[in-house]
Amino acid sequence: MNHDNHNIPFLVYGNQDSILVYRDWWDKVMVGDSIIKPKGSLEVIIKNSDKIEKLDYEDQFGLEGQ
């Protein structure tokens, strides 16, 4: 959670990488999940031993089909 930026939640992965998390994604990401964000992609893949979730920023921004 970034308190300097109006409490906007971020996923932190790798050494210094982070991405914005939408409220409807909160229940899909747990501590210990693997986070895959291909460079240049608007898709984030969340993996653990029980699931694979694909979260897409295009859907959140209303950009699909543009």
Brief descriptors of the model:
single chain, 66 residues, mainly beta, three-stranded antiparallel sheet, two-stranded antiparallel sheet, 32% strand, globular
Low-confidence stretches: none
Instruction: Let me know the number of strands.
Output: 5
> For the residues shown, what is the average pLDDT?
77
* Proportion of beta-strand residues: 25-35%
- The span between the termini is 31 Å
Estimated radius of gyration = 12 Å
The amount of helix comes to under 10%
Q: How would you spell out the order of helices and strands?
A: EEEEEH
Q: Helix tally?
A: 1
Secondary-structure map:
Elements: E1 10-13, E2 17-20, E3 34-36, E4 43-47, E5 52-56, H1 57-61
Antiparallel strand pairs: 1-2, 3-4, 4-5
Can you put this structure into words, describing what you see?
- This protein has 66 residues and is mainly beta.
- 8% of the residues lie in helices and 32% in strands.
- The protein has one helix at 57-61, and strands at residues 10-13, 17-20, 34-36, 43-47, 52-56.
- Strands 3-4-5 form a three-stranded antiparallel beta sheet. It has a two-stranded antiparallel sheet with strand order 1-2.
- The longest helix has 5 residues, at 57-61.
- It is globular, with a radius of gyration of 12 Å.
In short:
This protein has 66 residues and is mainly beta. The chain has one helix at residues 57-61, and strands at 10-13, 17-20, 34-36, 43-47, 52-56.
